[in-house]
């Protein structure tokens, strides 16, 4: 098993007055001149660059090679963990954000595949820490390790650097959290709050106004008044999808919240009862939706895509699936069938199926143009041969 921990640690180094003497804990010069820290106003505004560091600072690690005791995470466990992932953490930048119910440390963690994780560790009343993943951003299109990150609190921007270039990312994208109070509250992003109309940037002010935010618990029941309307699915998007019997069909549904558990329910025609869709070899649940590998007649009906967080459940999408008899569908050639199976695989793995379609269309168009160009060249060659013959015959007649 492969895992990645992210910890917050604190431990004083050891010191020894002379060789053979007992080691003891020391903090002399440790808090103000930590080894490996670049000069800044945080430590000493008089020191502008590394060349002006005192000798005792430069040689600090030489005389303090060991820690006084074993280094453990301050919270007793890692703040953030990832298990069985295909990337490594490379850089971290932390922003202190003031919210309605306190101050939070939002961590932006870079990886070696060009992504940035926006995570947070929340300590509850019983000192139990909760890991919250707010966003996972694909900053660079090509997998390029992130080598540097810097936060500008004034500009509210995160600057991300790699070998391929520099990117600028906003610290908050509140509009992604939906258009209802519950979704904004459940996102638990300290940068954002519900202002009565939309999920927007939270700005601390003396007047509370209509700002709704609950970062610690993410409980919309204490913040929002339209819960019954939101949970009932009155604002949920509705779709109509046709599926051919014995063929595959994909029902797309993506939750805006990283913490939500998505569940599917099916209401069959003529019934008022909803039964939960249980994944198996034929019906596969993914992060992007529900893949039905072979549609049966009994699969037709009204599908409800729901998101559950804590004790709150809301309907994200309603999809009506109508199954068409296989005998009424037009037959498809093996090449088309193979393309469809490959698109199903991409949907299952979260790949860019739409991008593949455009890519294939580009290849087919290029191949068609190439054939037309070759055909045109062949026609031109035949025309030249006919012209030569005509001129040759005309010359013979004149002589």
UniProtKB/TrEMBL annotation:
Pfam families linked to this entry: ig, Sema
Family in the record: Belongs to the semaphorin family.
Domain Ig-like: 251-320
Entries under PROSITE patterns matching the protein: IG_LIKE, SEMA
Species whose genome carries this gene: Synaphobranchus kaupii
Residue stretches making up the Sema domain: 1-171
InterPro entries linked: Ig-like_dom, Ig-like_dom_sf, Ig-like_fold, Ig_sub, Immunoglobulin_dom, PSI, Semap_dom, Semap_dom_sf
CDD domains: Ig_Sema3
Protein name: Semaphorin-3D
Lineage of origin: Eukaryota, Metazoa, Chordata, Craniata, Vertebrata
GO molecular-function terms, A-Z: chemorepellent activity; semaphorin receptor binding
Localisation: Secreted
Keyword Protease in annotation: no
Gene3D superfamilies, A to Z: Immunoglobulins (2.60.40.10), ligand-binding face of the semaphorins, domain 2 (3.30.1680.10), YVTN repeat-like/Quinoprotein amine dehydrogenase (2.130.10.10)
Annotated region described as Disordered, given as residue ranges: 1-21
């Amino acid at each position: 098993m492969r895992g990645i921990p992210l910890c917050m640690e604190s431990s004083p180094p050891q010191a020894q007055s002379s060789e053979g003497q007992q080691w003891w804990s020391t903090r002399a010069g440790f808090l103000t001149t930590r080894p490996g820290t670049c000069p800044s106003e945080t430590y000493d505004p008089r020191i502008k660059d590394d060349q002006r560091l005192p000798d005792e600072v430069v040689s600090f690690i030489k005389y303090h090679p060991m820690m006084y005791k074993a280094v453990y995470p301050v919270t007793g466990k890692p703040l953030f963990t990832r298990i069985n992932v295909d990337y490594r953490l490379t850089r971290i930048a932390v922003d202190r954000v003031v919210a309605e119910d306190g101050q939070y440390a939002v961590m932006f963690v870079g990886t070696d595949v060009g992504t940035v994780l926006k995570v947070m560790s929340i300590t509850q009343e019983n000192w139990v820490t909760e890991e919250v993943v707010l966003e996972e951003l694909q900053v660079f299109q090509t997998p390029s390790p992130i080598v540097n990150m810097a936060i500008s609190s004034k500009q509210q921007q995160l600057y991300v650097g790699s070998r391929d270039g520099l990117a600028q990312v906003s610290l908050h994208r509140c509009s992604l959290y939906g258009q209802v109070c519950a979704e904004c509250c459940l996102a638990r992003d300290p940068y954002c709050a519900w202002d009565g109309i939309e999920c927007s940037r939270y700005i601390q002010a003396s007047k509370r106004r209509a700002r709704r935010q609950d970062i610690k618990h993410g409980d919309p029941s204490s913040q929002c008044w339209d819960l019954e309307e939101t949970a009932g699915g009155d604002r949920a998007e509705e779709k109509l999808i046709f599926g051919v019997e014995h063929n595959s069909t994909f029902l797309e549904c993506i939750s805006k919240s990283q913490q939500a558990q998505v569940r599917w329910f099916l209401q069959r025609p003529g019934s008022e009862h909803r039964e939960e869709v249980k994944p198996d070899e034929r019906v596969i649940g993914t992060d992007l939706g529900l893949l039905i590998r072979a549609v049966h007649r009994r699969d037709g009906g009204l599908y409800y895509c729901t998101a559950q967080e804590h004790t709150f459940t809301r309907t994200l999408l309603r999809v009506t699936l109508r199954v068409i008899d296989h005998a009424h569908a037009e037959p498809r050639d093996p090449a088309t069938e193979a393309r469809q199976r490959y698109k199903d695989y991409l949907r299952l793995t979260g790949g860019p199926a739409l991008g593949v379609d455009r890519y294939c269309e580009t290849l087919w168009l290029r191949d068609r143009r190439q054939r037309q160009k070759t055909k045109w060249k062949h026609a031109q060659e035949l025309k030249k041969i006919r012209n030569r013959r005509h001129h040759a015959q005309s010359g013979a007649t004149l002589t």
